[in-house]
Design brief:
Peptidase_S8/S53_dom_sf, hydrolase, protease, 8-stranded mixed β-sheet, serine protease, alpha/beta, signal, 5-stranded antiparallel β-sheet, disordered N terminus
């Protein structure tokens, strides 16, 4: 059985995690795009080579045929566009009309040779592995309401921070969060760490697996465990040599409710939601951690069944980027239902906004009822890597945050992953102080008392409050607004490493670009973030934050092919690798259908124009690379991807979509 490339943002722990936590800086990180200059193409450069020539449609296809963006009717309308359209099997979530139908539908699916890989009998969904034809047949069952990919998520990266938000003043008035709990859905926890001092009141593990390349992180080796030390982050499966890949969850839990955290008296519910992926091509190293949507859904439901008082669920992880509310999307609607159900029980869901320096947030922070959190630094400015804009609810400290990691140690990380537990811990303090006040009111109080950050986002002025517990809980006055301009790290910050791309293979010999570009500009510098390690940990190399560039300069497919071909362009390989990771998080085509997850593979996509689909793939990748490089506008990309995801797009539709995509960006 094959498992599809996992889509998500790029953030890496001491490993390289997806549905991974949301850190910005981490011991192994993904480099980030530069912000200064862009390569200047030679003046004599011929017109874009990627503009597709007129294509004669196949005999069986009519050029006049309507664009396949029309919504199909019947059972096929239940299946997400693009599932298995290019062959192979897909891991998919099958939504059912009722939990009681789980067993009979699963039995029927198995009889039809569809592999049922997860069957939570109390849930109205199951997870299967099947071809496009098998999934379409399964959709004919009236008990099946829809079928979509089992998406994955990454972790976001990971004292002055506590005093900045006034937590020290709250502690001085005996507000510690005692009697409340924070549920941390992450990479598990070190159950014996002194920062948690017997306050871990429940543990669980939901760790999806497949036959090849994916392993469970549950101590019992199964996909699910809700007893004992189920979220133990010190198990052998968490280790990659001497590195503990599961340290992110302990760090997040320590910020929210450790003895050195925001709510040092609160309890902790630790839930492991990640799986171990042993695929160097996908991970960029032998192993990494990622979380499936199905695992997250089970974990959110599990928290809802607990009897203890829980103030907040912390999700320091993220997937696809959104510029607007995602409640109406399929993935957004699923998570909104879960988040709303918890909110009805006075439990907030606090989610990392992401570290892409993007005017928007990652999923599921885009859900309207989630509390989306960006990061600020200790000088009271928006962190240079943080996502921002009107979808954010709060900023909180996320730069150089020291917290607990396995083996009784502490480490310093940065990222919106670290900002998020500041807010989760703050809500534990608020709920412990006023247990009868609805959670919605507590959230609004944090927002209304926070210090306003005033800044521009997508050409409009936005105000987002920075968490201030001194004003919300300790009775001090609201601090005055700070007007600022969030910017990426400057050109002088170039000390970060330039790691090798995920695929070191060169393109096919016969298709190498002949000319080596000449450029009068220096390579785009990569911003860096220093990772400081304390106690027993060994210092890790300096790592960079992976964000979009600011060049806002469109390059042709031919120029991008030159950049992607190893050492022939002006943009560093590390920056290009970052761009591909951002594209993988934002696109449904790459690498879902078209495997452009590494420099060599992306190069081949740009050079392959043999079919209408291949030409559209090249146009889409060119436009996405321009977007990652700093150009704006994704409307035509979304429309083009819809055509590409169609099961049988006509030649005319492919040609039209290719033309429109090549015009995109500004």
């Amino acid at each position: 059985m094959r498992f599809r490339p996992l889509i998500v943002s790029s953030i890496v722990l001491a490993l390289l995690p997806l549905s991974a936590p949301a850190y910005a800086e981490d011991p192994t990180l993904i480099p980030t795009p530069g912000t200064s200059q862009t390569p200047t193409p030679p003046a004599e450069e011929p017109p874009p080579a990627e503009t597709p020539p007129a294509e004669t449609p196949p005999a069986e296809e009519s050029p006049a045929e309507t664009t396949p963006t029309e919504e199909p009717s019947g059972p096929e309308s239940k299946v997400e566009a693009g599932l298995g359209v290019d062959g192979g099997t897909e891991r998919a979530i099958v939504e059912l009309t009722d939990p009681a139908e789980n067993a009979p539908v699963a039995t029927q699916a198995a009889a039809a040779n569809v592999d049922v890989v997860l069957q939570p009998l109390s849930q109205s969904f199951m997870v299967v592995e099947g071809t496009a034809e098998e999934l379409a047949k399964l959709a004919e069952d009236p008990r099946v309401s829809s079928i979509h990919r089992d998406r994955t998520y990454l972790p976001a990266d990971v004292s002055p921070n506590l005093s900045l938000i006034g937590a020290d003043q709250a502690h001085a008035k005996s507000f510690t969060g005692a009697g409340q709990a924070v549920a941390v859905l992450d990479t598990g926890i070190d159950p014996d760490h002194p920062w948690f001092a017997g306050r871990i009141v429940a543990q669980a593990c939901f760790s999806a697996t497949e036959e090849a390349g994916v392993e469970s992180l549950c101590p019992n080796g199964q996909n699910k465990q809700t007893d004992g030390a189920a979220a133990d982050a010190t198990t052998p499966k968490c280790l990659a040599g001497a590195v503990n890949m599961c340290d992110h969850g302990s760090h997040v839990a320590g910020i929210a409710a450790g003895t050195g955290g925001v709510a040092p008296g609160a309890n902790i519910v630790a839930v492991q939601v990640f799986s171990r992926i042993n695929d160097e091509e996908l991970c960029g190293e032998p192993s990494c951690l990622m979380a499936y949507e199905s695992s997250l859904r089970e974990a959110l439901d599990y928290v809802g069944t607990l009897n203890q008082p829980i103030a907040a669920v912390n999700l320091s992880l993220g997937g696809m980027l959104y510029e607007s509310n995602c409640d109406g999307t399929e993935e957004g609607a699923v998570f909104k239902e879960k988040i709303d159900a918890l909110l009805a029980k006075n439990i907030a869901t606090v989610v990392a906004a992401g570290n892409e320096f993007f005017d928007g947030v990652s999923h599921p922070a885009c859900v309207s009822s989630a509390v989306a959190v960006g990061a600020n630094d200790n000088s009271d400015a928006v962190a240079d890597f943080s996502n921002r804009g009107p979808l954010l609810d709060l900023f909180a400290p996320g730069v150089d945050i020291e917290s607990s990691v396995p083996d009784n140690a502490t480490t310093v990380y940065s990222g919106t992953s670290m900002a998020t537990p500041h807010v989760a811990g703050a809500l534990a303090l608020m709920k412990a102080a006023t247990p009868d006040v609805p959670m919605t009111e507590l959230i609004e109080k944090l927002k209304s008392t926070g210090r306003p950050y005033v800044y521009d986002s997508n050409g409009a002025q936005v105000t987002t409050p920075r968490l201030d517990l001194a004003a919300a809980l300790a009775g001090t006055a609201q601090q005055p607004p700070i007007t600022q301009s969030p910017t990426q790290p400057g050109p002088g910050d170039t000390s970060g490493p330039s790691p090798e791309p995920e695929d070191s293979s060169n393109p096919d010999p016969g298709t190498e670009p002949e000319p080596e570009p000449t450029s009068s500009v220096s390579p785009v510098p990569l911003p860096t973030v220093t990772v400081t390690v304390t106690v027993t940990h060994t210092a890790s190399p300096v790592s960079a934050v992976c964000t979009r560039g600011t060049a806002a300069k469109k390059l042709t497919a031919k120029k991008w092919a030159i950049e992607l071909h190893r050492s022939t362009g002006s943009i560093p390989d590390a920056t290009l690798t970052c761009y591909l990771k951002l594209i993988g998080k934002s696109s449904k085509v790459f690498p879902e259908l078209t495997k452009a997850s590494s420099l060599g593979k992306a190069y081949r996509v740009l050079k392959n124009g043999k079919t209408g689909k291949a030409k559209l793939d090249g146009a889409l990748l060119t436009a996405w690379l321009n977007w990652a490089h700093g150009t704006n506008g994704t409307t035509s990309l979304t429309a083009g991807e819809k055509v590409r995801l169609s099961a049988k797009p006509s030649a005319a539709a492919l040609k039209k979509a290719t033309k429109n995509v090549l015009k995109s960006g500004k």
